Amino acid sequence: MKPVVDSPAGSCSSSTPRDTRNQLRVIVWSFVWALSFVAVTLCVKKAWLPSALTLASGLATSLFGIVTVLAYRRFLHQTDELRRKIEVEALSLAFGVGIIGGTTYWLLAVMGAVPALDFYFVFVVMFLAHPVGVFLGRRRYS
User: Fold this and answer.
1) Of 10-14, 27-31, 36-40, 133-137, which range is least confident?
2) Is the pTM for the entire model greater than 0.85?
3) What CA–CA distances, in Å, run from 113 to 99, 120, 133?
């Protein structure tokens, strides 16, 4: 199978059609998971759902998360070594930003230096750090 270049000339990133399909699956499931999480969170905070439906919605959101992780795992297993390395480095950046940033912010909130925020802001920062890590990795290895 001949690689299909999916980025500007000079970049290290090339994809096979299989990589493109796998990455699209990850993106679609990530959006489904995120939308489900936001919708369920809003419904719970506004008390729009009966408790039985709230529980089922929470479990469905978890199921979407599991499917997303499995899609990402499939992508990592089936892609080339360089792309896998870039993804692992991006994951480590996102994890580090989440742990260090989250615990630092929590400590500052306990001290009263910053306002307390809900826990999901840590996840939002982690989700934003991952594509930054992928971008930096692609630049580093191009």
Assistant:
1) 10-14
2) no
3) 19, 20, 29
